Amino acid sequence: MGIVARVGFLFTRRWLVFAVVVALLAWLAVALGDWQFRRLAERKEANATLIANLQALPVPVDSLMRIGGDAPAGSEWRTITATGTWDTENTVVVRYRTLQGKPGVEVVTPLRTPTGTVIVDRGWLRTANEGNARPDLPDLDQGTVTVTGHVRVNATGSSAQVDNLSTRAVSSSEIAKHLAGQQVYGGFVQLAKQSPPPPSALVVLDIPEVNEGPHFFYGLQWWFFGALAVVGFFYLLYDEIRRRRSEPTT
Questions:
Q1: Treating both helix axes as pointing N-terminal to C-terminal, what angle do 215-246 and 13-55 enclose, rounded to 10 degrees?
Q2: 213, 97 contact by CB (below 8 A)
Q3: Opening angle at CA 161, ends 160 and 166, nearest 5
Q4: What is the dihedral of CA 170, 173, 174, 175, to 10 degrees?
Q5: What H or E segment, with its residue span, contains residue 106?
Q6: Which has the higher per-residue pLDDT, 118 or 238?
Q7: Are the CB atoms for 82 and 61 separated by under 8 Å?
Q8: Nearest-angstrom CA–CA distance, 231 and 22
Q9: pLDDT digits over 103-121, tens only?
Q10: How far does CA 140 lie from the centroid of its chain?
Q11: Fewest Cβ atoms closer than 10 Å to its Cβ: which of 15, 52, 63, 116?
């Protein structure tokens, strides 16, 4: 039996559909692998920016942040210092923030400085899990304080809207709507330390971990699945040809 006759079954509807499905699966697996490797490249770039910004020396708030809008591009996690007084009456509570499985909130207070108001996320406070109920907040110094913290970009969407000094995510643009007459810096600051220390300190929020995540291994897995689909197809093809060879000819 000639080779053409032996592989003629490839042109049957069953094998053509099988070949198309395998080709699509292989293409999809390669595409998903490429996507994971692109995410890895983006993660590496973000890590490099994060490390550089964290290692940069602290600068005064008005040398980096600007009134209105958002934090400057590429400035997130830079360290700034600001000196002013707390606007405790306009403290905003960020609801539903768990830490190590415990319920709590983040406490965000405007800091009035000679050049503008800085929105400062002072940290995490453990609370009872009571939904929208506003917790009792610790006292703050009424005098002048100096804060050191990391620049953060504003949250967006409906979660950042402020209602009754309560929100789900921090946005200086949204909080500014409730600060009549104040010039508010774009973006906000995640507090690292305060001088003098507050009477009752909150839990300082963590900075992101510098790691590359699972993207490299996910990319390899997708490519392996694509190769497995192709190899599996050709193995089944070989097995079918071998079976037909063993059949008696008429």
A1: 160
A2: no
A3: 95
A4: 70
A5: strand 104-113
A6: 118
A7: yes
A8: 10
A9: 999 999 999 999 999 999 9
A10: 31
A11: 63
Specify the pLDDT at position 9: 65
What percent of the chain shows pLDDT beyond 70?
A: 93
Tokens of 250: 């008429």
Cα 156 to Cα 239: distance, rounded to the nearest angstrom: 57
In three-state form (DSSP H/G/I as H, E/B as E, the rest C), the secondary structure along 115-162 is CEEEEEEEEEEECCCCCCCCCCCCCCCCCCEEEEEEEECCCCCHHHCC
Residues in the chain: 250
Q: Cβ of 196: how many Cβ atoms within 10 Å?
A: 10
The residues near 121 (Cβ < 8 Å, ≥ 6 apart) are 94, 106, 107, 108, 149, 152, 170, 188, 189, 190, 191, 205
* Residue 73 three-state SS: coil
Encoding tokens for residue 225?
A: 């699945």
Give residue-wise pLDDT tens across range 18-52.
Answer: 889 999 999 999 999 999 999 999 888 888 888 99
Cis ω on the peptide bond leading into residue 72 (within 30° of 0)? Answer: no
Q: What is the pTM of this model?
A: 0.77
Q: Is 24 exposed, middle or buried (0-12, 13-18, 19+ CB in 10 A)?
A: exposed
Q: Is 229 helix (H, G, I), strand (E, B) or coil?
A: helix
* Nearest residue to 199 via CA among 240, 160, 143: 143
